[in-house]
Batch of 4 targets.
Target 1
Amino acid sequence: MPEIEVRVYATLQKYVPKQDLKTGNKMSIDGNTTIKSLLDNLGIPVEETKIIIVNGVHAELDTVLKDGDRVAIFPPVAGG
């Protein structure tokens, strides 16, 4: 079964409380898993996400994940 590495940041960490930011969370996926279905699986509302990166490249919700993908999920952030 394909496996991916997932990291969530900032306010999204409440959805994955046992996350290790150094190694990420390894997750098994099926061959049709998209970013959207991954978010649903993790319980992360789409509207709480802003930037999703797969293997260092911005990804859309309909991106199909593959074995070995590294996914980073960020919420909207503000600074000043």
Target 2
Amino acid sequence: MNRKAANDSDLVRRAQQGDRAAFAAIYDRHYRAVFNYIFYRVGDVPLAEDLTADVFVRMVEKIHTFTPDKPILAWLYTIARNRVIDHHRRHGRTTLVALDDDLDAADDDPAAAADAHLRQAALAAALSQLTEEQRLVILLKFVEDCSNACAAAVLGKTEGAIKSLQHRALAALGRV
């Protein structure tokens, strides 16, 4: 178990005992990853913020059911995935968007902004050629830097299936 995972396990154990600082530390450590995952799926910042808040409320409510030796981020992604699915069931599906950190940095430079938008459009077009599961594997593995085990837990697949999905996704992107 790596250092971050060991620290997460300790935070979960403390949170299960009611330690508010541990809840805050889990939130601080994983908020951005959960938000990015949700934003990628819903394409709307305020909605992604609301759903991310729901994920962490659910975590607080159900932390006693979580096994501390498992990756907390995988559990948070699972909660996030369920929240997004519930949202899409109630409100219909929206277009997925590509994440691009360059867009924020390019706001003051029109040439950089145009370049960032072109790259984002090319990435979105390439990702649109993938299946939903392939897109999620690419997001989890390359945007959120998840391990195969974490991605497998989020998607309810085996690590071998994740490797296969990743391989097929990269092959498909190579053909685009």
Target 3
Amino acid sequence: MQLRNVAIVAHVDHGKTTLVDHMLKQAGTFRENEAVADRVMDSNDLERERGITILAKNTSVRWKAPSGEVVKINVVDTPGHSDFGGEVERTLMMADAAILLVDAAEGPLPQTRFVLTKALALGFPVIVVINKIDRGDARPDDVLNEVFDLFVDLEASDAQTDFPVLYAVGRDGHAMRKLDDPKVNLQPLFETILEKVPAPKGDASAPLQIVINNIDHDDYIGRLAIGRVSQGTIKANQQVGVLKENAKNRAAIKVLNTFEGLKRTVTQEAQAGEIIAIAGIEDIDVGDTITDLSEGWEGRALPRITVEQPTIKMRVGVNTSPFAGKCKASKFLTSRQLRERLVRETRKNLAIKFEDTESPDTFTVLGRGELQLGVLVETMRREGYEVQLGNPEVVTKEIDGQPHEPYEMAVIDVPDQYIGTVTERLSNRRGRMMKMNGHGHGRTRLEFRIPSRGLIGFRGEFLTSTRGTGLLTTFFDGWEPWGGMMAKRQLGALVSDGQGVATPYAMNHLQARGEFFLHPGAEVYEGMIVGEHNRPADADVNFRKEKKQTNVRNHGKDENVMLAVPRILTIETAMEWIDADELVEVTPDAVRVRKQILQCSRRPRRSEAIEEAGSRTLQSNAPPPMAD
């Protein structure tokens, strides 16, 4: 049976996973009476809740070629958000070509450029699919020109720039070779894959070589190593060599799986080009090579997979708040358990790293962005971990004896009336406008070059200032000399001065001083942040105050308490909001923010604490202690 291996890549929300849904349905993967959820490839709870792909997935479909032969097409669905670029880099290694989806209205965006750069560097032929042509503001001809310009800008070869183009409505399962072709099904896409995607290369009789691209877990058969057979043939129960970075081990293949639709199917043999999942080797990591034990096996290691280095770091420590351990769903509270969990994460996710610190209860976790770190913490929270987080900071490095910080290109699409607001806010964060283009539909695209730390906490502010109508995407754009201290949050915090329960009476008298983060009846403790002050300084407030009871009859009506709706913080919005002297407390049932130093009498003024923490960050990569 013939094979084709293809990866679907695109910017976030351009329709990759929805298109794969219809490929599976039209290829007959599901029974006619089988109930199938939308975005079936996004099986993770967080992916379904957020509407984004976080983890790369493998699946396959079978399609009959014009010759009558059935061809198996292995499909890899990759994340579209730049924070999860490490998933893209790893999984592209399992493919021989890429399907690039581009939104017919938005055109190529930063992650489009990122994934296309990786695909072109591997020499892949690319099939361009201009999706969502049914949008009212679709401009497919202009977008096609922009895609071609992007290929040229990325120095694609002549063969690569001669790419086939399809037009699609992925939501409805339609693809056309021309805009005026009838909308029927995805047959033009399947035919183009068979025509343009090369069959896998590799000699099935050569010595076995497999590089592991992904790690998964099965409750019944344990750790799964996923990779593509580069050459040779692998069999179930075969004795193999595992070539690690600093070791060479022997092991046995207990279970050998291939991918059929959304399921793993047990097989006895797989040849060069097939994507497989292996069970039975517990000590195996992403980047390791599996080979047979024929003569010279110790020297057959394939190049290890590398991904771009992290640009954001964050302190993660054991929860030390007065409420630590009180949640009934909490299972993991110790530094040993936290460290073991971080080790497991780094073994399967090359884009995440962690370092020990001088404190045994605190670790530094490094990643690509706030979303990636926030998803990691949210996953741990659902597993039963309690942690506290420091504010995200940029990773600095020394070049020619001078500290340098990462810079990013921020590409922004906003309605014309918000151009001034967005420009002002980014300029205050040391952003510099590089380009400005009007679409002609009342929207304008802006490009800013800005320090990465200038974007920390900006996403929420951006959505608020554009009333949710703006689009913001970023990508890494090099290193520049450190630019000095940068103001992050202009307003101070409302901090509880004691432990107890928040009362409507107290909140009613305090709501003129700022915006609250919790509802009446919530438990609070000294040093816990209960809201945002409407002035730059912090304010210690009594959230527990109750109305005095007397036996004197009041002829007037009782006071009717009307409280504004509080701003409930998620993990990511809390990470964005806190300053250098504050922490996010995460438990299975709550997300709270607090001061590092809980006692009011011991806590320095906000400006002094931030200045001290900022200078310490630049002087050393070691984070400050996560106190109390």
Target 4
Amino acid sequence: MEEIHETAKAYYNNLTESQKDSAKQMFQSMDSNGDGSLSLSEYLEILSKKGYKLCSNPNFFKKIDRDGDGNLDFEEFLSLYYLIKSERLLFCDGHGCGAFLKGVYFTCVHCFQCEKNFDLCPSCFSGKNFLHNHAIFLDNFALLHFMAKGYSNKREGANEAVVMGLGIAKFIVEITANSACSIM
């Protein structure tokens, strides 16, 4: 979560004053007792009402609570604000997993192009712990490069995604073979 905290802070530092005021207003609206921090109960109440069911639980609250004091100060709240505003609240769709996808994850290329997400943590993707109608997945960084190429034809794009995925897999196999360690 440290990287998300730092990213949220960087974005906040580059907001306009009006945008910073919006973040402060959201924080104040969640701070129902006005003590300058969000308790777990305030956090759960507001997020449940707003429909953020997957992150409205004590475990996710603890991930955002950097200092572990049981409250979110404004700086800690900025991580939540960033995740909500950037639509970065992603959770694994693998069987019963539901892990928060805070780093690298895999997404179905077809679903992404149709503006429906099917995302998997590396463990579920590697272990094939999912059922899905499509077979082409890329990690979020490879997907960004894939989309930057601007494939408008889905078939051409899907073929390129398969080629890219196979290229990545081949590269990993080569690295693993070249760096194999032996004690003899």
